[in-house]
């Protein structure tokens, strides 16, 4: 057994209907595939119907579950409400929402137009809050329990230059997660977040490491465990957090980054650049043999 394999036992998500925003590509798709394998049905949503339909077809060919593609730009509340109505019409009840849709790109902040800044804020923070509000109001009115799982990133708390709108928006999503974990627990609604480190996807890599940058900045080099993430290990964590096995986990953010952000934070972590011979010399200079 290792981290490239599914972790939960068969049927762990049987009978669960789960909405995944940004579910047609990348990490949303990978998490969705595993939820399906565990017995769930899915609604996958994003702006591109063709992508969603193709993904839904491929997903259903691999598993017994149902996958319904629904177009929705999460920035538009009318589209969000109509998408939610389609979820309910299809399945009667949605048990979990995976807020995964995002927009991002790198840029010196002073080069951004107001529209560029707002575009990322709107997809990530406004989009997540609109989906959350729509689902939460429905669950509360119908007296149904529910679970939110929000995908953030480690710079939600450290901040990061060159992706400032994304950092500000993800910090907001984290605050939303923690706030509602307390406020809506009385309705049986849990909220948690996952903060992934680098997990290669076409969407992220093309926008965050465009052109030659991918050769200059190998993300694996920043990770203490020496590699980037494998989609299945994120899917394992997500499946646990969206399942009833995590019933007592509420309001937390779980980092899955191989120790990446802490490596950047620890004052003396870059001493790993000191070769063994230099440590030997330092030891010898205080009178101890190597
Ligand atoms: C500067 C840019 C830009 C760039 C777009 N803009 N790209 N500014 N640098 N690279 C500006 C545009 O000029 C425009 O401003 C405004 O942003 C809106 O651009 P549009 O192309 O009209 O927006 P839209 O079609 O809505 O596309 C949204 C998008 C795009 C965010 C720009 O990249 C997208 O669709 N992204 C979705 C998927 C995605 O980003 N996935 C990666 C997530 S990875 P003006 O002023 O000219 O009108 C992630 C990882 C986090 O989040 C952590 C990693 C470790
Ligand atoms: P991705 O494939 O580009 O996923 C982003 C998804 O969001 C796409 O499916 C996109 O579909 C959808 N989306 C974008 N704008 C939307 C909008 N306005 N309305 C609805 N859907 C929209 O990239 P990814 O790497 O899998 O990212 C998934 C999540 O993981 C994001 O939250 C990201 O911040 C997070 N994350 C990724 C990494 C990583 O290393 N990959 C690290 C940390 C966090 P459409 O274009 O069809 O709308």
Which descriptors would you attach to this protein?
single chain, 290 residues, alpha/beta, Rossmann fold, seven-stranded parallel sheet, 7 strands, 46% helix, globular, binds hexanoyl-coenzyme A, binds NADP nicotinamide-adenine-dinucleotide phosphate
At the third CATH level, what is the topology name?
A: Rossmann fold
Distance between the termini: 40 Å
Give the tally of structural domains: 1
Order of helices and strands: EHEHEHEHEHHEHHHEHH
Bound molecules: hexanoyl-coenzyme A, NADP nicotinamide-adenine-dinucleotide phosphate
Count of DSSP helices?
A: 11
Mean pLDDT: 97
> Can you identify the CATH class?
Alpha Beta
DSSP, total strands: 7
- Beta-strand content bin: 5-15%
Rg (CA only): 21 Å
Kindly report the name of the CATH homologous superfamily: NAD(P)-binding Rossmann-like Domain
* Overall SS class: alpha/beta
Identify the strand order in the major beta sheet. Answer: 3-2-1-4-5-6-7
Helix amount, in percent? 40-55%
